[in-house]
Design goal:
With 118 residues, this protein is mainly beta. Helix content is 8%, strand content 40%.
């Protein structure tokens, strides 16, 4: 009887959902005078299906955006536009793009940024 209850309970547990990929289109971005060019993402789930409603942000501390985050559309796509980098002494930086969705894991990927200051 006890094992039947446990098996019934376990049968009701949902398979965990997770973000599998951000699909960042840009391998390298050139940051001129602190302006980060558009970064295009396509967020996919564990079945490689696009995820709608995912919050996406560049999560480096020295980066700021015109909004706190952008949200993916029905095709799982979003564009990070208008983000800027404060003064940074190096020639390169790894920008960390992070995605959040309730009920899913937090997921991050990096894109290299080449910094050019005038």
């Amino acid at each position: 009887m006890g094992s039947a209850v446990i098996m019934g309970w376990m049968g009701g547990i949902d398979t965990p959902h997770y973000i599998h990929s951000l699909g960042i289109e840009e391998n390298v971005v050139v940051i001129e005078d602190g302006k980060i060019p558009d970064i295009h993402v396509c967020v996919l789930d564990e079945n490689d299906e696009p995820l709608k409603g995912v919050s996406v942000v560049i999560s480096n501390k020295q980066v700021s955006g015109p909004v706190d985050y952008v949200v993916t559309d029905g095709d799982g796509k979003a564009t990070l536009s208008g983000w800027t980098l404060s003064s940074y002494p190096k020639d390169t930086i790894r920008l960390t793009v992070t995605a959040y969705l309730a009920g899913y894991n937090e997921y991050s990927e990096q894109v290299e940024g080449l910094i050019r200051w005038r």
